[in-house]
Amino acid sequence: MTRGRRRPPLALLVLVLPPLLLFACRSAPPPGPDTRPLGELLAIDDPRPQRFLDALLEAGRERHGLRGIADLALDGPDGSARLKQVVLLERPARLRVEVLGFLNQTAAVLTTDGERFRLLRSDRSSEEGLVRPSLLWEVAGIALRPDAAVRVLLGTPGLPDGARPLPPRATPGGGVRLAYAHERAVAALEFDATGALERWRIEELGGRHVLLEAHYTAYAALAGSGFAHQIELSDHRNGTTARVHFAEVELNPTFPPGIFALDAGGPR
């Protein structure tokens, strides 16, 4: 599939965030095959697949919002950046991302309800309109649509409606891999031996080429359950990796009225 070169994210623009090392532009390599051997099929009466999936679905029902301060490390064909973001999100697709620049001044504020967005920059220029697929990539280095980003950052990535379950398999270390076929792709969830989500992946159907994956680490207790404070999101289609580390995070906060309004607030 031929892809046009995307604009580098706001995080990679020198005028917004000066202390960056920009590389020469180059084309991203095509997605590579997953060379890890598939684990053995689990016994049909193994209780772990359903137990792990039920726990993840329950977490998805319990987690409806997040407020956090995140350090972002972004690496890709267009360069690298290290920056800080203030992230507010609420299911199903509300997001407010404040990008902090040098000395923690506000470089930009993006607000979206999943359908429309408004972007305000520190020079008081603005942009608004319908959400495009690349919006979060351009602004925050996250190659997902708002609804998917909300689920992934909450640690509860979803499965496609109508997906067909594939036989569960073992993973190295005693974990479990659950996979679901949908149209031309496979969505996979990989849990460790304790049931904590390790990876969420989107793969090509049949070829095992990984297109997109999120790797969850740095689990710590939060709101009565384990929460991954670090998420590494890799988009193998364009060769970018975003590592999100929550320095501070709160689940299910009470947000001020209008915080997600598309005409609210902006860089100060």
Considering the chains and any ligands shown, give keywords for the structure.
mainly beta; outer membrane lipoprotein receptor (LolB), chain A; 268 residues
Structure description:
With 268 residues, the protein is mainly beta. It has one domain (42-251): outer membrane lipoprotein receptor (LolB), chain A (Clam), CATH 2.50.20. Helix content is 11%, strand content 42%. The chain is built from three helices and 14 strands. Strands 1, 2, 3, 4, 5, 6, 7, 8, 9, 10, 11, 12, 13 and 14 form a 14-stranded antiparallel sheet that branches.
Number of domains: 1
* Structural Rg: 19 Å
End-to-end Cα distance, whole Å, is: 42 Å
- Topology pattern, helix = H, strand = E: HEEEEEEHHEEEEEEEE
How confident overall, as mean pLDDT? 84
Q: What structural category arises from helix and sheet content?
A: mainly beta
Strand content: 35-45%
CATH architecture: Clam
Largest sheet: 14 strands, antiparallel
In the CATH hierarchy, the third-tier topology is known as outer membrane lipoprotein receptor (LolB), chain A
The first-level CATH class is given as: Mainly Beta
* Approximate helicity band: 10-25%
Low-confidence stretches: 1-8, 10-28, 264-268
* Strand count: 14
Q: What overall geometry do the principal axes of the alpha carbons give?
A: globular
CATH superfamily: Lipoprotein localisation LolA/LolB/LppX
Count of alpha and pi helical runs: 3
